[in-house]
Amino acid sequence: MTSGLIIGCGYLGGRVAAHWRETIREVFALTRSTETATQFSQHGWNPIIGDITKPESIVPFPEVDTVLLSVGFDRRAGYDIQTAFVGGIKNTIAKLPSTISRLIYISSTGVYSQSNGEWVDEESICEPQRPGGVACLEAERFLQQSEFSDRLVILRLAGIYGPERIPRIASIQKGEPITSPRH
Length: 183
Hints:
Blueprint lengths: L1 E6 L3 H12 L2 E7 L2 H9 L3 E4 L16 E4 L11 H15 L6 E7 L22 H14 L7 E6 L11 H6 L9
Parallel strand pairs: 1-2, 1-4, 2-3, 4-5, 5-6
Helix pairs in contact: 3-4
């Protein structure tokens, strides 16, 4: 049986956990909340309670094959994006078993600064302009220098949309224009 650990089991992480569980994987998922841990158990996932911004709360993680780092920024948590994305990733890496075969980090296209319609790909210059992009790029660079760099996959997503997750849906439904925060 293969196994996976999800750090950041929100919208995206939850869908990955469900998929992994269907494909005969043992799934572990980190959460700060005992209520969420109960929900994870009901899905057949093994909850681990801890907070990546508080290293003392993180127990050593189980031996798994794959780790998904899908950390989102929770504005209600009381810390800044740098603490979550960079500090939290560093705290997490320190607790991972060295035997994992793949580490997947969900980053953002916010690491790029191009905004004039030019093509952007993985070779494009990274000069983030916003705090989220800056933090994601710093986390990427840390991971690229970590002991897991030879097993690292970085996915830079442009946005995570789906059922119950369409930003500014009310404006879209009203036909109102949506402008970029940069303009």
